[in-house]
Design a protein that fits this description.
Number of domains: 2
Strand content: 15-25%
Order of helices and strands: HEEHEEEEEEEH
């Protein structure tokens, strides 16, 4: 993958904007202070059989990029006990509930990787396919 990034650097030096898309992949992240946990990020490596990260281009790619964002759902929660949700339905323990509105996350959370070198907004609107808020933030002119 390093020759690919060298070619992309050449494009950037010529003034071309480069956008890379990747699927999300969940890995088990080691937690030296307690129990290991699940962590989402770009799928840029091959996981071992136990789900832990092996040698990865993901770390290099994320350091190389100016922005790594995550597209996800707003207000998503996982229920921890059986209780009525806002719509009056009884939640099942461990069941995810939320809205169908999407958002672009530009700042990391404990359960997923994101980063930005210039964006100040943690969550950017992405409520429908015609919403161009992200492009307005990235390219203000």
């Amino acid at each position: 993958m390093l020759p690919v990034f060298a070619d992309l650097d050449g494009l950037i030096r010529r003034g071309v904007n480069v956008t890379l898309l990747a699927q999300s992949c969940t890995i088990v992240k080691a937690n030296p202070a307690g129990i290991d946990f699940l962590y989402d990020g770009p799928k840029l490596y091959h996981p071992s059989k136990d789900g832990k990260q092996t040698y990865s281009i993901r770390l290099y790619a994320c350091e190389w990029a100016d922005h790594v964002v995550r597209i996800g759902y707003l207000d998503q929660q996982v229920s921890s006990d059986k209780a009525p949700d806002p719509k009056g339905r009884t939640s099942v323990v461990g069941k995810a509930r939320g809205t169908t509105k999407r958002a672009i996350y530009a700042q990391p959370e404990p359960h997923f990787f994101a980063k930005t070198r210039t964006l100040t907004e943690a969550v950017i609107s992405f409520e429908d396919a015609k919403d161009a808020s992200l492009w307005g933030w990235l390219f203000p002119q």
